[in-house]
Amino acid sequence: MSERQLPGFIMCVCTGKCPGFQAMDIWDFINQVRVELPVEYGFIHPQLCEEDGDRFLADFLKAHRKLIIGACAPNMQRKMFKQAFIDAGLDIEKDAVMLDIRDMTNEKAIEVVKKALSDLGFEEA
Amino acid sequence: MSESTFMGVPREKIDWSPRIDYEKCNYCMECVKFCPHDVYEVRENEDKKLIVKNPNNCVVFCRACGKTCGVDAISFPNKAEVTNKIKQLRMEMEQNG
Ligand code: SF4
Ligand code: SF4
Ligand code: SF4
Q1: Whether residue A53 has pLDDT greater than 50
Q2: Shortest CA distance to B4 belongs to which of B60, B52, B53?
Q3: Which of A12, A14, B54, B73 stands the most exposed, by the fewest C-beta atoms within 10 Å?
Q4: What are the φ/ψ torsions at residue B75 (nearest 5 degrees)?
Q5: CB A49 to CB B63 under 8 A?
């Protein structure tokens, strides 16, 4: 492979109001991901599977960068985001890694993201 | 202070939760498996083996479990109507506040 472009990280938090993220300090988590882990950037989207999430993905995926999405069940994410990836000329299986980080503490969720990055060949500096 | 708000109004005043069409539901429990928010309750020994127990735990505007349902037995309220209701409630609260 010629260039190793770091992946982007989107965390989806179910509007930020859901009990699934109660065990986590989402701000500490996203800050740790974006500052410490080998990602190009990290940010929080409130509800990727809503209509504005579709519109956001339609715009955002044009950048053609590999994405890690930390949200809910991967099979569900696959269903919900598949079309957006196809529309952008991408393949959700190859161009995204989908993680379920619900009902986790920060420590646990960070481990899950680190492992995904390391599986992609990116280790912490 | 209200326990939990959404877009500035108390969550319990917002009518958003899944509706199960019992004519269609085959109790595969995919929806229950997906949702981590304790919205549903499984009732093994009853006719309706699945009920919406805690509607206010449902994330407003989420429809994700509906997408897990193979037979399309889950529906949700009309989003535009719910949005209008939220705006109206917020206005009332501002006037009374
Ligand atoms: S994509 Fe998943 S985590 Fe994000 S709002 Fe939808 S159900 Fe919640
Ligand atoms: S709509 Fe979302 S939050 Fe509500 S019951 Fe379904 S999965 Fe749970
Ligand atoms: S996913 Fe659909 S069919 Fe399965 S239990 Fe839920 S409502 Fe019923």
Answers
A1: yes
A2: B60
A3: B54
A4: -130, 170
A5: yes
- B27 CB within 6 A, ligand 3: yes
- Report the alpha-carbon distance of residue A50 to residue A14 in Å, rounded: 10
pLDDT on residue B2: 46
For residue B35 and ligand 2, the question of a CB distance below 6 A is answered with: yes
Task: Collect all residues of chain A within an 8 Å Cβ-Cβ radius of residue B36.
Answer: 19-20, 72, 102-103
Reply yes or no on whether the pLDDT at B97 is more than 80: no
Q: CA A117 → CA A29, A85, B22, B38, distances in Å?
A: 15, 20, 43, 31
The predicted model gives B12-25 an average pLDDT of: 97
Closest among A70, A61, A67 to A8, alpha carbons compared:
A67
- Rounded CA-CA distance B60/B43 in Å is 25
What pLDDT does residue B37 have? 87
Averaged pLDDT for residues B20-46: 94
Q: What is the pTM of this model?
A: 0.87
Q: Report ipTM (2 d.p.).
A: 0.78
Rg (CA), chain B: 15
Strands B5-6 and B9-10: antiparallel
